[in-house]
Amino acid sequence: MAELLLIGIAQLATPRAGPQRGAAMREITVLKGAALLIRDGRIAWVGPERDAPAAARVRDLGGRAVTPALVDPHTHAVWAGDRLADFEARAAGVGYETLLARGGGIRSTVRATAEARVEALVTLARPRLRALRGSGAATVEVKSGYGLTPEAELRSLRAIRALRAAFELRPTLLVHVPPTEGREAYLQGVCEVLIPEVAREGLAEAVDVFCEREAFSVEESRALLTAAQRAGLKVKLHADQFHALGGVELACELGALSVDHLEASGPAQIAALAASETVATLLPGVTLHLGLPAAPGRELIDAGACVAVGTDLNPGSSPLFSAQLALALAVRLNRLTPAEALTACTVNAAHALGLADRGALAPGQRADLLVLEGPAWLELPYTLGRNPVREVYTALTP
Ligand code: NIG
Ligand code: FE
């Protein structure tokens, strides 16, 4: 039996286990002078240090803060090439959607990624995932989506599978942009061949679609997501990044795990999310990098929605390699309180992946936790541009 008691915890901050919505997102527990017992990769006990049970091994953290490890519920960490020319063009005033409509943007990353071999994709993704983990993310969702052809999408998903030997990843098939020719045949092939094949091989747990004017319509998204559900896969959606086309309403109707972006969402979409089980995932890195309006995080929580936050790590709209910084930006840009941001990046982000066993420091949960550099947990939402995370414990840490 592997047992480890952590003592010397100046502050232990945690949301309650399970998804939290509305005002409950602010109801975190902050314990001073705490201890935490890990047994076989799970949390066995949490409480005041003076009441701590005896344990085979004890480690004194010397007066540091401890929080649950973060969950990053939205990344596109597998890509080849770069988007540096896009970045320069956008700084000179060319819009993200204009670049995409001209055959650049996502399409230029597709050209670079589609030809790459699995091994090359693994080599490129590994340091990105290391950076995310170092920033506090013990669990990371990773999407395909830069392959376009079924063969290239399968290569990206195989790269994600290979990376799962070293990282706790949850793979998603993303149907990102339509081909420039043969759109109908493409959609039919994805629904009838690619999705069933991905489900059969266990290469993804969910299917995601980019529902947007320059990508897929609401009706095309519906066809793709219902094909995914028929194949036994979960669904999620990129919606309302630039235009509120009805993707949020579709995601809620289909019982999607999450609907992500929401920069263009208004009162009707906020009300739909507040009335549904679908998680509203905010991606503040996109607001920062593309200069888009911030998604209405404050309004979503005040309406009673379940809100999560992710990095959206990708080369075009969010080159954000830190889950801690995504959390910190959600406070500034989406107007979450620090406590709400912690909940959004832990239990609610886990729920956006269909996971209930992580995100809180409570008995029975996975022992995925962060030791911060200093004694106050607020350093996590407060710090910009320096990593306040000293150590990431995962259930797999011996
Ligand atoms: O989540 N918006 C669509 N997909 C990604 C961006 C991909 C890219 O620009 O390469 C996103 O923002
Ligand atoms: Fe994305």
From TrEMBL:
GO terms for cellular component: cytoplasm. Residues 66-374 form the Amidohydrolase-related domain. Its main location: cytoplasm. GO terms for molecular function: imidazolonepropionase activity; iron ion binding; zinc ion binding. InterPro entries: Amidohydro-rel, HutI, Metal-dep_hydrolase_composite, Metal_Hydrolase. It is found in: Cytoplasm. Pfam families: Amidohydro_1 (PF01979). Keywords: Cytoplasm, Histidine metabolism, Hydrolase, Iron, Metal-binding, Zinc. Binds 1 zinc or iron ion per subunit. Zn(2+) binds at H74, H76, H238, D312. One of its GO terms (biological process) is L-histidine catabolic process to glutamate and formate. Gene3D superfamilies: Metal-dependent hydrolases, Urease, subunit C, domain 1. It catalyses: 4-imidazolone-5-propanoate + H2O = N-formimidoyl-L-glutamate. It is an enzyme of class 3 (hydrolase). 4-imidazolone-5-propanoate binds at R83, Y146, H176, Q241, S317. Its cofactor is Zn(2+); Fe(3+). Its EC number is 3.5.2.7. Fe(3+) binds at H74, H76, H238, D312. NCBIfam families: hutI. Belongs to the metallo-dependent hydrolases superfamily. HutI family. HAMAP family: HutI. Catalyzes the hydrolytic cleavage of the carbon-nitrogen bond in imidazolone-5-propanoate to yield N-formimidoyl-L-glutamate. It is the third step in the universal histidine degradation pathway. This is Imidazolonepropionase. It comes from Truepera radiovictrix (strain DSM 17093 / CIP 108686 / LMG 22925 / RQ-24). The lineage of its organism: Bacteria, Thermotogati, Deinococcota, Deinococci, Trueperales.
